[in-house]
Structures
1.
Amino acid sequence: MQTAGVAMASVSCVMFLLSMLLALLHWLLKQRETGKQSAPPCISGWIPWIRASIRFGKAPLEFIEQARAQYGAVFTVVAAGKRLTFITEEEDFEIFFKSKDVDFQEAVQEAVWRTASISRKNFYKTHTPVHDMLKARLAPPRLHLFSANLYNEFCERLLYLGAKGVDNLYDLIWHSMYPAVVNNLFGRDICLTNRCTFREMEKHFQKFDRDFEFGSQLPEFLLRDWSKSKHWLLSLFGSIVSNAAKLKPADDHSKTLFQHLLDTLNGNSTANYSLLLLWASQANALPITFWTLAFIISNPFVYQTVMKELGSVMDDKGNKKIRLKESDLQKLPYLKCCILEAIRLRAPGVICRKVMQPLKIKNYIVPSGDMLMLSIYWAHRNPKRFPDPEKFIPERWKKADIEKRAFLDGFLAFGGGRYQCPGRWFALLEIQMFAALILHKYEFTLLDPVPKESPLHLVGTQQPAAPCRVEYKFR
Ligand code: HEM
């Protein structure tokens, strides 16, 4: 009787376990089915994975557009083991900038560690205060604190160009603009910007900038040259930081942006953040200045219109010392339209956020852990927003209220949301001031066609794919 009872109990126990197992199996199958249905199309698989990675790595910008045409508005690329989910339609961009289920800091933290050796702990402690300080210090009401000094720095650098010459336009901009802006933000000659020591710093910074994207993703031992330049720059900033601490002015208005950065960091990762600030302030603004000047000089009607406008604000002898204040720049709206149009055409390849909770986009569920990617470069080629999108048409910006610092709808070059680019107003100031001064002082002739943009990089604005020589002489 007892044994029969035990046997019955064991059978029902087994039955119970079996039914639980079946239920679990059924649930798993269902999950797989719904998962399959709802995740965005994924470009992966064994052979295609390698092929996708290689194609993606060789010309990532083109790859995004081809994948969109083939797979639709939302798709995932598995590249170098990471899931990157792209959204390409404007109606989905609000989720990217505003959803609480996506995160900026989680998206960039690893890249910040790889490029500037800022630990996760230090990053979370300091990132938001640094961002807020930069946003406040570089806000429009404070730009006049930079402009007089920036003007003097630019004038001095332009003296080195002499009365005439031939040069690659990109190099010419680099050598004139980079030391001037670094002096302006960090303090005069504090970052080796005097003529003798500048070349070494320039060499390391250019190497750091060129492979920044790879450095942000790969271990350093795979990028020996890049790593050498990174550590050279970090150790340079190590000594700059300790010197700067001794020279700190007490008055708030006399401090450079760099000194405000040191105050905010209070000893945490100071050299590391200084390197990131140097990179963020140069990596996009310099190529955009190149494109602005190249587009203007190569287009006779635009060039003439810009020069007419400049003539109405500055005296017409380029080699005389003229003054140009921040308020004068407001009298140059056409030049500003040219800059904004150049930024539209050469906007950053992608920006990203990390998905923290499964995210519904269209009929798909994007799994947590994915990187959500938005290509500003392609968003700026939406013909509904920007008719004839590939053409350089400064006139399209007449519709924007430039005086009130409003951009055109659909223009996203500076990102958006909580961590939008804090340097955007300073960027527009420096590019406009530099372009006004150099165009007023020199007459330019292009010796090469305007090059195409390099398809290699996704992070930041595009660099020219080939040299572009110009001849310049005093007006
Ligand atoms: C035309 C020039 C520039 C362009 C197109 C540009 C664009 C951008 C973009 C797209 C982002 C990412 C925003 C996001 O993900 O939503 C960014 C971030 C940033 N930009 Fe700019 N930028 C420019 C110039 C500058 C300048 C001149 C500075 C400094 C003086 C600067 C400082 C920064 C910093 C510090 C960040 C990181 C913000 C953070 O981590 O919180 N940028 N920029």
Note: Residues 119-348+380-474 form a domain with the Cytochrome p450 fold (CATH 1.10.630.10).
2.
Amino acid sequence: MTDNIMQSSAKSCRRGPSRLSFICTVRNKSYISMTTNNSGGCFNFQQHVLHASTSITARHPAQRHLPFSQPLRSLSRADHPLETPPHSQPNLHPRRLPIHPEINSVIFSEELIQARVAELGRLIGQDYQRSDLLVLGVLKGAFMFTTDLVRHIYPYPASMEVDFFKASSYGAGTTSSGVVQLDSSFKKEGVRDKHVLLVEDIIDTGHTLSRLVALMEEAGAASVRVAALLDKKARRRIPFQADYTGFECPDEFIVGYGIDYAEKYRNLPYIGSVKEEFIKHD
Ligand SMILES: O=P(O)(O)OC[C@H]1O[C@H](OP(=O)(O)OP(=O)(O)O)[C@H](O)[C@@H]1O
Ligand code: HPA
């Protein structure tokens, strides 16, 4: 079954107001459709669906005749047909990279993340269509989410700026120090009188975001909202609710899609948990 799916190509990904379906054409011409419930602002994932959708990795049309082992960089520009997906469709990046050997299981697949990020972009676009917007990505964890999200903010705000600054509280461990460290990249003058959207990868204890929202308010922002890809409610120490949330996150230390463990795994296009033997316990 998995082999079959691995050989498949994702034909379409449809979104409705209350469900999201992945439809794949499998080599033997059968169809697979998976649905997840999508309730309001927060996507309630179903574990079995996520694991299933993870294995739907399609090959780029230009890769069809290449062995899987051939690196993508050997393809020339001309090999890539310029197909621009309609703005309203999730951005399915066809690829077939093996799961990282130190990853235990994929919790949010690349396809699912991309679909949800596109959806959040449209929600944000609708809310800011008549105002200016300063999108502030919180480094390093939110670098990937921010760069994907801004491409999907539509309708376009009257004007939009994108910037980043660095805040951290975890160091090389898996627990928050509770002290949020900012570096000099944050300049208060840069947010004065602006409508700020803070973009974060994850809310865990809530220390980082409660500190950052207070900081924006002190700096004189006209308004402050928060978009967080993941919300790990079970670990909250300080009450905090984001304005735009991607997914509820299970109570596990997760990595990937910008999120690290001791600076590793930020490059992964999906989010998963690390195998126990690769976590250092003090
Ligand atoms: O809700 P909290 O418990 O405060 O956790 C959330 C924060 O933790 C992570 O940052 P980290 O300190 O690991 O820095 P990084 O973004 O550079 O990885 C993450 O990117 C959030 O900023
Ligand atoms: O689950 C997590 N993983 C990585 N970094 C984090 N920072 C807060 N929570 C997490």
Note: The first strand starts at residue 9 and ends at 15.
